[in-house]
Every structure is written in C-alpha cells, then in structure tokens.
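To assess whether the prediction recovers the assembly geometry, we first specified each molecular entity separately, as shown.
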Amino acid sequence: ELKVEQNPLFLSMQEGKNYTIYCNYSTTSDRLYWYRQDPGKSLESLFVLLSNGAVKQEGRLMASLDTKARLSTLHITAAVHDLSATYFCAVDGQGAQKLVFGQGTRLTINP
Amino acid sequence: KAGVTQTPRYLIKTRGQQVTLSCSPISGHRSVSWYQQTPGQGLQFLFEYFSETQRNKGNFPGRFSGRQFSNSRSEMNVSTLELGDSALYLCASSSPGQGVYEQYFGPGTRLTVT
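The predicted structure of the complete assembly is given in tokenized form:
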C-alpha cells in the first residue's frame, strides 16, 4: 500500500527565512505533485514533478524529486506572509488517476 | 477555460438521509476523481470515472457511490448518512491522454451531517 509522509506537519517561521518541507513515499512512482490549500478553500496545483532529478521553481518556491530516495522537497526562500497555507504532496497510485496525499504541512509565516 | 465546478457548495443533512453532489469537469477532461477531506483522516481518494466507467475505487463503504454521464459530468451519492461523513468533498478533473496526469480541483462541497 502506497503511503506518503510529510514533515514537518506544522511550521511557524519568520518572514525572510528559508525552510524545507519533506515528502517521503513508500513505493515506486514517477509522478509527484505539490498542492497549496488556503483555509476553507480548494487545492491549488503548484508543481508536477515527472522524473528523477526534476526541479521546478515558481517565485519563492522550489520543488525537487529524487525517485531513488523516494523523496521530494519543497523549499521556501525568503518567506513572505502570503505563503502561509497548508501544503500537500501527493503521489499517483500505480499510474492510476488516484492520488495518495501526505498529511499536509501547515505553514505560518509571521511578520 | 472555465475551471471545475461543484454544486452545491454547502449542504446540511440529517443522519440517515442521502445526498447527491455534482461535479462538472474542465471542458475536454474525461477523467473525474472524487476525494474526501476531513481533519482526522486528511485527503482520501473515493473513486475515479473515465468515459462513464469507474476505473478506480478507494476504501470506502458501499454507501458511497458515483456515476459519470456522457458529457463527463459526475455525481456522487452518499446514502444513509452518518455523522462521520461530514467533510469537504472535492472533485478533480484531468485529461490523461495528454500524458501529464495533473488533476485540477474544484472548490468543493462542504457537507455537514447533524
């Protein structure tokens, strides 16, 4: 059974600092996704990582994928308050349209 | 392109009742997946439909069912509602034929069972 684990689950940081969220998954998968969710809202797609070594960046967020280690990271650079949200990673279940999500990381950025 | 739409956005039901939720995918998308989000269990996959056929199913009881119509719109039904069914129900659409299996989520239906 595919399992996805994120850490940390809660992260409080100051504006201007850097930090990394980690996402581990238990079985082979070629596709990993990062989503953002604001309170009471739906999921917004951030990144789709399709192959080993893939790195994608958008603004202050950068995501990478190491399929051999079954690990993805979401790095936040010089955090700003607007990035406060819950971040989820998700992995395809055996190539099906069936995402298995991590628990989510609730990120709070304080001025 | 218009995004994924879900109706209704909010619902309050009583234990024992049944409920039907609707999802209209992005135009051209033929796959629709449903997820349940609760504080305790997080985001869990319910089922996926493609071309009116259920292709994948999660670990939910038979009270949860769904269907997809020829225009790709999908409905999910929950019968004999329980308090634990209170959740945000999200649907997502995708276009697998394009090789990138990215799923686009709708705004969700928040169901409260009293």
